[in-house]
Specification:
Transmembrane segments: 42-66, 78-98, 104-124, 144-163, 234-251, 272-292
Number of helices: 14
Keywords: Membrane, Transmembrane, Transmembrane helix
Strand order of the largest sheet: 1-2
Strand content: under 5%
Radius of gyration: 23 Å
Pfam family, one: DUF347
Number of strands: 2
Number of domains: 2
Shape: elongated
Order of helices and strands: HHHHHHHHHEEHHHHH
Protein name: Membrane-anchored protein
Helix content: 55-70%
Length: 425
């Protein structure tokens, strides 16, 4: 959604702290949304920092980045987009804290964040008499701007989760719905709707769109995804972001923000070409890699099926028996054999009092469950939460400072019973 009048007058270029709104702006925004969320999950789950440490770390890094941004005298692309990625992470974490930790419903959190955003806009307008980002040229206006940006990410996360999870639409429908809403917003802008209104609506909608597109690439094929996995998707998105932000940096350095896309390197048509090239590259690489991973095998010798690993004969400790599956599922979650297999492995280790080995194997359960969340949760949110709580109990007992065999065994037995109950073809 490129606004021909969005750039500030050239006499104030040195005070402009935000980019011109062009095609590359929207592409980078969507990609930043996805990579921000993926990176936070990677730190919390794969690295093992946990949600609390990850939250504290990301808030600290965001504070440092915002200080850098606020101290600059003009738009500096790499600093600005670093802040956007970090705000995406923190905004998502705020919503997850309300939903997962405090147990606030997505309906309520969406309404609360909508009210907070409205309050930010009202206060901003009363103080500055404008909400246009072309006017972000004083410290106070920039403070309002970043406050609004953070709230839009929290609201976009809550609204997106509400649509894809609570309402059961799933990430595929979510991508179509939010993409369609953005298209309608662009049409409304072209038809004469206000620039400020359409910009902020589109900005909110890009958050759930980016998350849905990310899930489309990362989720298993059984869930309708391309099965690239979070690591490959993050690297792909990060590479495109680096290229587009580098171009932004070169143009801003040579010509200033007001003429970005209008200088000798190209015009707005060239800007659209760069943005489209980034999107096409992601689509092409995504489809290409997906076709090469019809039955991918992970490094621990398990095949990725239905969002998680399924034991391969002769691989691992070889102690897990075949998992019986019900002829009819008792939930819409579908095939949970992957998680039942790991749970059986863990039960064997705990029975043999190999709690250290169980702690290591539990990492596979945590990672595979987290990777499959976007595909499983929309199918049956209530049953997913029950399993999630039981998996958390297993992880907590195995990772205790002095784990007790009886506690670990009891939690694993409860989880295995639930998995067997919910599993089905």
């Amino acid at each position: 959604m490129a606004y021909n009048t969005i750039a500030a007058p050239r006499t104030r270029d040195w005070l402009t702290k935000v980019p011109a709104i062009t095609a590359t702006f929207w592409v980078i925004k969507v990609l930043s949304t996805t990579i921000g969320e993926t990176f936070a999950d990677y730190l919390a789950v794969n690295v093992g920092l946990g949600p609390l440490v990850t939250d504290a770390l990301m808030i600290t890094v965001l504070a440092v980045a915002l200080v850098l941004q606020l101290r600059t005298r003009q738009y500096t692309p790499w600093i600005y987009w670093l802040c956007v990625v970090l705000v995406s992470i923190v905004g998502t974490q705020i919503t997850d804290f309300f939903t997962d930790t405090l147990g606030v419903s997505l309906y309520l959190s969406t309404a609360v964040f909508a009210v907070i955003l409205a309050a930010v806009f009202i206060l901003w307008y009363r103080q500055e008499h404008t909400l246009a980002i072309t006017s972000v040229d004083t410290p106070r206006r920039e403070g309002f701007y970043w406050g609004a940006i953070l709230t839009t990410f929290a609201l976009g996360t809550a609204a997106g989760d509400l649509a894809t999870e609570a309402l059961g639409l799933g990430f595929r429908n979510g991508a179509l719905i939010f993409g369609g809403l953005i298209l309608l917003t662009w049409i409304a802008f072209k038809a004469g709707a206000g620039q400020v209104l359409t910009f902020w609506i589109a900005y909110i909608l890009t958050r759930p769109l980016g998350a849905s597109l990310g899930d489309l690439l990362t989720q298993a094929k059984d869930f309708g995804g391309l099965d690239l996995g979070p690591s490959t998707t993050s690297l792909l998105f990060f590479a495109v972001i680096i290229v587009l932000v580098a171009r932004e940096q070169i143009l801003a350095h040579r010509h200033g923000v007001a003429v970005k896309g209008d200088g000798p390197i190209g015009g707005r048509r060239a800007d659209v070409v760069w943005a489209a090239a980034g999107a096409v590259l992601i689509a092409a690489v995504g489809v290409g890699l997906s076709s090469l991973h019809a039955n991918p095998t992970s490094t621990d010798g398990v095949s990725a099926v239905a969002g998680g690993p399924v034991a391969t004969p002769g691989v691992g400790n070889g102690t897990a028996p075949a998992v019986a599956r019900l002829p009819k599922p008792t939930t819409r979650l579908g095939n949970l054999t992957a998680f039942a297999t790991i749970t059986t492995d863990l039960q064997t280790m705990v029975t043999n009092n190999d709690l250290a080995g169980g702690k290591k194997r539990a990492k596979d359960l945590e990672v595979s469950w987290d990777d499959a969340e976007a595909g499983l949760k929309p199918r049956d949110s209530g049953k997913w939460h029950r399993l999630d709580d039981e998996i958390d109990a297993v992880l907590t007992s195995l990772r205790a400072g002095s784990p007790r065999q009886a506690d670990c065994a009891a939690n694993l037995a409860a989880l295995k019973a639930t998995l067997d109950q919910f599993d089905g073809v």
